[in-house]
Amino acid sequence: LFRAEIEKKILAHGEGLIAENNALAELSVLAGNKNARDFYEAHGWQVVNEFTGLDVGEVPAPMVLMKNRLS
């Protein structure tokens, strides 16, 4: 529970900083990182695109672009 509260506060702080100059925030997450995707989705972020990120060695990195309206 303590960790979840810290994560939530850090996210809120970051979103507050972004909101000072932007109404919309975006971030990229590894498509297979279910914990991260679930966390952001629980806080209003939505997947808007899927793409292949930079290759790590010979392995493509499937990514998702997530956005959140901050106003």
Can you put this structure into words, describing what you see?
- The protein starts with a helix and ends with a strand.
- The relative contact order is 0.24.
- Strands 1-3-2 form a 3-stranded antiparallel beta sheet.
- It has 71 residues and is an alpha+beta fold.
- It is globular.
- The chain is built from 2 helices and 3 strands; from the N terminus they run αβαββ.
Summarize the helices and strands and which ones pair or pack.
Layout: H1 2-19, E1 24-30, H2 34-42, E2 46-56, E3 59-69
Antiparallel strand pairs: 1-3, 2-3
Keywords for this structure?
alpha+beta, 3 strands, 38% helix, 71 residues
By DSSP, the count of extended strands is 3
Average pLDDT, rounded to a whole number, is: 92
User: What is the end-to-end distance?
Assistant: 27 Å
Unreliable parts? none
| Main pleated-sheet profile | 3 strands, antiparallel
Helix content: 25-40%
Give the neighbour order of strands across the main sheet.
1-3-2
> Structural class, please?
alpha+beta
Count of DSSP H/I helices = 2
Q: Which range does the strand content fall in?
A: 35-45%
Order of helices and strands: HEHEE
Instruction: Using the alpha-carbon principal axes, give the shape.
Output: globular
